[in-house]
From TrEMBL:
It comes from the Archaea. InterPro entries: Haem_d1_sf, Host-pathogen_enzymatic-act, WD40/YVTN_repeat-like_dom_sf. Residues 24-36 have a biased composition (Gly residues). Coiled coil: none annotated. Residues 13-44, 350-369, 438-462 are annotated as: Disordered. This is Cell surface glycoprotein. It comes from Halalkaliarchaeum desulfuricum.
Length: 462
């Protein structure tokens, strides 16, 4: 039985990969299990839609594609959802309710979350959640949304009544104040590097044990992780960047008690490689957590015993590139985890059944494969393509990856500046790009970041 038959999830990637993926999920405590991925309660395969978010200056729209009914590797644009008429600016990321009937779109520019009826493409409601609303996802039971609000430094809960299409702010958490209260020790609290005085949530996903994991950022230097008990709406654990420097993607394993996170830092062309090699080279790393203990897993496969035993070098895994960002699961045969690097336009595919995998290294490690490119322009940053967030098709045949534009509205310009704004369509089996969707053509203002895939009952025959 494929995991899609028993679990359902939405983005993190961050996504999100993180999205961001780059990158961020539904799961936890119900029949859907946990974790981001292409699962859907309606079953594997069948018709589906690809929602590609153009957050570019003045663009603010969602392009909806579906597979061509007769041609392999081809997709037709079904509809465009204009968001400008609703005052929505910078639609950044998207996730779906458990049955894919509603979408939640977090909008960093307008500081709100839009709820969209996915069948009619009608904007049902916009909820003011705060400046820099970065990622919103439905809870496993669809009774609320959790929103990572960067500008306010808050996790906001929006109570949702989907039957009556009613939404209201239910509660919020001031991350800075709560982490200080939770940590207690002044020296340990000082290890949390604040961004302009605040700790800021980036992306999240739900575990199967009633928690959500939220990365901190946005910079690698402001990174970290907080773990929220979604039943009590209280933080239960917090990790500073000196221990867990995760600042982007969040994704829970759909079956195992494992959680994956990314850490990315673009290279600084002005940094002295001798004095500051980390800044000069950039960072691309990923981490694995044991969700039963809320502790990281060492690269030897063992779970760290206590927070005091964390050695950053023992838990960091190599993404084989720079600025690790979005990731997503696929299951062509066995379950695999795709991870992309935004600056270097490449990535890896790992076997999530093996907790000892650390990256390809000099010799390709068994269980780790490399992806040479997502976008067609492989010029060094900032001259080449910049992939950001990904999401797989319900039949696990394709991975859809957003490509940023030449005028990106988010992310470090050195890493996020792209050439071919749109969506790269990757063949999951061959790891090769088979199509490039560019609904905005070569419009220099186009900037594709968020992406989502929803399963539908049927597709058009046009």
């Amino acid at each position: 039985m494929k995991r899609r038959d028993v679990v359902k999830a939405a983005t993190g990637g961050i996504v999100l990969g993180t999205v961001p993926g780059s990158a961020s999920g539904n799961g936890g405590g119900n029949e859907r299990g946990q974790g981001n991925g292409p699962q859907n309660e309606t079953g594997a395969g069948g018709a589906y839609e690809v929602w590609a978010l153009d957050q570019g200056e003045g663009q603010n729209k969602i392009h909806v594609y579906e597979p061509h009914p007769r041609q392999d590797d081809e997709f037709v644009k079904k509809q465009t959802i204009p968001l400008n008429p609703h005052g929505i600016q910078t639609p950044h990321m998207v996730s779906f309710s458990s049955d894919d009937s509603y979408a939640a779109v977090a909008n960093t520019g307008s500081g709100n979350v839009a709820v969209i009826d996915t069948e009619t493409k009608r904007v049902v409601e916009t909820i003011d959640t705060g400046a820099g609303s970065h990622f919103a996802s439905f809870s496993p039971d669809d009774e609320y949304l959790l929103v990572d609000v960067i500008g306010e430094g808050e996790i906001v809960r929006v109570d949702a009544n989907l039957k009556d299409e009613e939404f209201e702010i239910g509660d919020d958490i001031d991350i800075t104040a709560k982490v200080e209260e939770l940590v207690g020790d002044e020296d340990r609290y000082a290890e949390f590097e604040k961004d302009d005085g605040a700790l800021r949530p980036i992306c999240h996903d739900y575990t199967g044990e009633g928690h959500s994991y939220h990365t901190l950022g946005p910079s690698y230097h402001n990174a970290g992780l907080v773990i929220l008990n979604i039943e009590t709406f209280e933080l239960e654990a917090a990790f500073p960047p000196t221990e867990v420097p995760t600042n982007c993607g969040t994704i829970a394993h759909p079956e195992r008690e494992r959680f994956y996170l990314t850490a990315g830092l673009p290279s600084d062309p002005d940094a002295d490689p001798d004095e500051n090699p980390e800044a000069a080279e950039g960072v691309g790393e990923w981490y694995v957590f044991d969700t039963s203990e809320h502790l990281p897993i060492n690269t030897d496969g063992s779970t760290v015993e206590t927070k005091d035993d964390i050695d950053p070098e023992d838990i960091a895994r190599d993404s084989d590139g720079v600025d690790a960002h979005g990731f997503w699961f696929a299951e062509p045969d066995d379950l695999e985890l795709w991870l992309l690097n935004r600056e270097t336009n490449d990535g890896i595919v790992v076997d999530p059944a093996d907790d000892t995998l650390t990256g390809p290294g000099e010799d390709d490690e068994e269980g780790v494969e490399t992806i040479d490119e997502f976008g067609p322009d492989t010029s060094p940053a900032p001259g080449g393509d910049s992939p950001d967030i990904m999401w797989s098709s319900p039949d696990d045949e394709y991975m859809f990856v957003t490509l940023r534009g030449p005028n990106p509205l988010s992310g470090d310009p050195h890493a996020a500046t792209g050439v071919n704004p749109g969506v790269a369509v990757m063949d999951v089996e061959t790891r090769e790009r088979v199509n490039l969707l560019q609904p905005a053509g070569d419009n220099p203002d186009a900037d594709f970041h968020g992406i989502g895939v929803r399963q539908v009952d049927g597709a058009s025959d046009d």
